[in-house]
Design a protein that fits this description.
Layout lengths: L4 H8 L20 H5 L5 E2 L7 E7 L2 E5 L11 E2 L6 E6 L5 E5 L3 E5 L6 E3 L2 H4 L3 E8 L2 E7 L6 H4 L7 E7 L4 E7 L9 E8 L4 E9 L2 E11 L15 E5 L2 H8 L2 E2 L5 H6 L9 E7 L6 E5 L6 E7 L3 E6 L3 E6 L13 E4 L7 E9 L2 E10 L2 E11 H5 L3
Parallel strand pairs: 1-23, 17-19, 18-20
Antiparallel strand pairs: 2-3, 2-26, 4-26, 5-6, 6-7, 7-8, 9-10, 10-11, 11-12, 13-14, 14-15, 15-16, 18-19, 20-21, 21-22, 22-23, 24-25, 25-26
Length: 390
């Protein structure tokens, strides 16, 4: 059985088995399977060429490298503690965002290299994820994980930020909802949060006398998240009890037959017997939707973004499907799906979340070993060069 970030945490904590579909961490990701079964042989980008550039994370910043495996060796850490891209999406005005755990947020504005917003104190000893938007304003969540990080257990819940707003104008982060706002006890941690565009759903892990229990809440901010004060204050959110089934309902993958029509068209060339699980985001939207086809525990992982002008899906081996037009450019291939393959990664590496801004596709890469991550970074691809005259 293929393990995921959520359920490996649960196994290690001998607790509730979390949703078994998100962000697979299997080094044996069958990198050639998608391409071998594709209806048409996709164009392949060579490991070293002028149409792309590799980057790696190191010492609180990022640097160029000729190949990912040539970046400095890093010790493997649980994914919750590693510097790695954990989410990516685009805003409705065409900017790309990459949320980097323990690091900050990279913003791509139609350029190959990003602007970088960091706050070492905010990101220290917390796990970042769940990049979402409210009226095109980016937010993300932070959580403490005391199982893998003993320093996190020492953090006081009252003022610990959970939902954080990114202000591009001020190049700063502002807490919107804190652990105190959610009325969490000192021994409680938010293990996962999901935003459906209207309601927030959170799973709460509590440990007492060596016993771990999970509870669930549904909550909403009073007014706009952007208008909330950055400190714990009574009356900021409305909370009501929920249950495991309700939490699972918003997180569980639906059958691919229920996926958006544009996504089904994009991947229509895949063989009927090809199994996969895809994380699908709407540009400038809420938490992603999940769709599975075939046997999910044996399927490939993929990521997709649907924007007004284009739709793109990328599998873990780098096989990429694109339809539409880049910002300010005519339709590629008359709007028909174009397939290409990103440079092949070493066996224990895989591609992950991505964003597109202007002509540039930015894709996360990382070195995996079960639930641990080693080296990580991103690949920037000039798609206008790749597509050429198509």
């Amino acid at each position: 059985m293929r393990m995921t970030r959520f359920n490996i945490t649960a196994v290690c904590c001998t607790a509730f088995l979390m949703t078994a579909f998100t962000s697979c961490k299997d080094k044996n990701h069958k990198a050639a399977k998608v391409s071998e079964n594709a209806a048409k042989t996709p164009q392949e980008i060579q490991e070293v060429s002028a149409d792309h550039q590799w980057y790696f994370f190191n010492n609180g910043s990022y640097s160029t490298v000729d190949l990912p495996q040539h970046s400095p060796i890093l010790s493997l850490k649980p994914w919750t503690e590693s510097v790695r891209i954990c989410d990516g999406n685009v805003s409705r005005d065409g900017k790309g965002y990459m949320l980097v755990n323990r690091f900050g947020v990279m913003i791509f504005d139609k350029a190959q290299t990003p602007s970088l917003i960091q706050d070492y104190q905010l990101f220290a000893d917390t796990t970042a994820e769940n990049l979402v938007f409210e009226v095109n304003v980016p937010f993300f969540t932070l959580a403490k994980n005391s199982f893998f990080n003993k320093n996190a257990a020492l953090k006081r819940n009252g003022e610990l930020a959970h939902v954080v707003r990114l202000s591009q104008e001020n190049k700063m982060f502002y807490p919107s909802v804190t652990y105190g706002d959610l009325k969490l006890s000192p021994s409680s941690e938010v293990s996962a949060t999901y935003f459906d565009g209207k309601n927030w759903f959170s799973s709460i892990k509590s440990t007492s006398d060596g016993k771990t229990e999970f509870s669930y809440i549904q909550w909403n901010a009073i007014g706009s998240l952007s208008a909330l004060p950055p400190f714990t204050q009574a009356g900021k959110v409305v909370i009501k009890p929920s249950d495991e089934s309700s939490f699972r309902a918003v997180n569980s993958p639906a059958d691919f037959s229920k996926a958006p029509a544009r996504l089904k068209t994009l991947l229509s060339s895949l063989p009927q017997n090809f199994s996969f699980l895809i994380t699908c985001r709407d540009a400038g939207g809420a938490s992603p939707r999940y769709f599975s086809k075939g046997t999910s525990e044996d399927g490939e992982n993929a990521f997709a973004i649907i924007s007004e002008n284009w739709i793109c899906a990328i599998f873990g081996d780098g096989t990429t499907y694109f339809s539409g037009g880049l910002d300010g450019e005519p339709l590629i291939n008359n709007g028909k799906t174009v397939a290409f393959r990103l440079p092949k990664l070493p066996e224990t590496y895989s591609y992950g979340d991505f964003c597109i801004s202007g002509n540039f596709l930015t894709v996360a890469w990382e070195e995996n070993d079960f639930y641990k991550t080693g080296r990580s970074g991103f690949l920037s691809v000039d798609m206008k060069q790749v597509f050429g005259g198509k």
